[in-house]
Write a structure and sequence with these properties.
About 45% of the residues lie in helices and about 20% in strands. The protein is an alpha+beta fold and about 250 residues long. It has 2 domains: about 70 residues, no CATH class; about 160 residues, Nucleotide cyclase, GGDEF domain (Alpha-Beta Plaits), CATH 3.30.70.1230. A hairpin with a 3-residue loop joins strand 3 and strand 4. About 15% of the residues have low confidence.
Length: about 250
């Protein structure tokens, strides 16, 4: 009885009409979609007794279409990127101050730091990848803009005052070709940038030779920095960098 109803012409046509009107685009062309898990499910549904009309099959495909229309489309999980300059920032001495003043002041400071950092980084063509509590990670396509952004961010943060406390930022930059995983970046080059940042002093911007090689060095003053860190390649050349405002 149910099998007969499933193949009844009027029932099948009603199910097809419903499928045409649900969200999800052209219901007859699943091959045009990206190959997601739900597309594979749709393909299996289409193969079930495909030689016979089926209202159940049509309703199943309609359900998949609705799901695809509301589910966020994931970006590729593993992408080869071109060279990017990676910036890490970190507040110097933040933990000691935070333990002394309490949560309200800490949150006030972090909000101010995040706002100033994000505005400057975006203005210099960069993108904040993630917040790291008392710091952040950002990426830039232009190494020179990344250096300027680091200095401008450090200067802006040092102008913030919370309950008499003036935060100091340290920054580290490295240029390489990390792997992009969703919105994040992973790999040796990311680790190197983080190690460089950790070696910087308060208000200091350190950059690898790879970053300066991609920038117009006439716009910056550089001083060789003795650098050694676990996880960083031997022979890595790092500079303390200052912008030249007269160039």
């Amino acid at each position: 009885m149910l099998a007969h109803t499933d193949r009844q012409d009027s029932v099948v046509k009603a199910a097809q009409a419903l499928r045409r009107h649900v969200p999800g685009g052209d219901p007859t062309s699943l091959s045009r979609r990206d190959l997601r898990g739900s597309d594979r499910i749709a393909g299996l549904i289409e193969q079930v007794r495909a030689e016979h009309p089926s209202a159940v099959r049509e309703l199943g495909l309609a359900a998949v279409q609705v799901w695809q229309s509301i589910a966020p489309r994931r970006r590729s999980t593993d992408v080869d990127t071109g060279p990017v300059t990676i910036l890490f920032t970190d507040l110097v001495g933040f933990s000691t101050w935070a333990l002394r003043v309490g949560d309200d002041k800490v949150l006030e400071l972090l909000r101010a730091v995040d706002k100033a950092s994000e505005e400057i980084i975006a203005g210099r063509g960069g993108r904040v990848v993630k917040s790291l509590g008392d710091g952040l990670m950002a990426v830039f396509s232009d190494p020179a803009e990344a250096i300027w952004a680091a200095h401008e961010t450090a200067a802006a943060i040092s102008a913030i005052t919370i309950d008499g406390y003036r935060p100091q930022l340290r920054c580290g930059l490295h240029t390489g070709t990390p792997r992009q995983v969703g919105e994040d970046y992973l790999g040796v080059d990311v680790n190197i940038a983080a190690r460089i940042s950790a070696a910087a002093g308060a208000g200091e911007v350190l950059a690898s030779a790879a970053t300066l090689d991609g920038a117009d060095e006439s716009r910056f003053t550089k001083r060789n920095k003795r650098f050694r860190a676990k996880g960083a390649p031997k022979g890595l050349v790092v500079y303390s960098v200052l912008p030249r405002y007269d160039s």
